[in-house]
Amino acid sequence: MQEKHEGNGSFTNELIRSSLSLVDFEQRMIYLQLKYPGIREIAAQRHHSPLKISKRFTNSDLMEVIASLSAVGFFCQQDDSPATFIQITREFETLCNTSFKNPDNCRWAVLNRKNRLTHFLDTLRGTLVELSQK
Prior knowledge:
Blueprint: H1 2-35, H2 39-44, H3 59-72, H4 85-96, H5 103-111, H6 119-132
Helix pairs in contact: 3-4, 3-5
């Protein structure tokens, strides 16, 4: 019975030490937040671009570009590994201040069009040809 009581006391002491350690940690966190008030905002900030998609165009038009660039492997990561379709999409979302609810479905819709498969890309091409002839 004595051993059980001593073991129980040791366990209780360990719980108290752990609790005090957590309280100490919380105090240090509060101190750091008081010392550096903007520290929580830095991590939560999402960068916004001053750009947005013109009213003449849609997210589907943008997806034509994203899907094409992704398919040809236009973008890569810092270690030269290929960027994923989702990574590229997220960067364009930030650049254009827009979002795709389901990027994979949007890409699928663009790739499976029956009419005007590459309407926006054709518009870009036509504009380049026109500019080059001026």
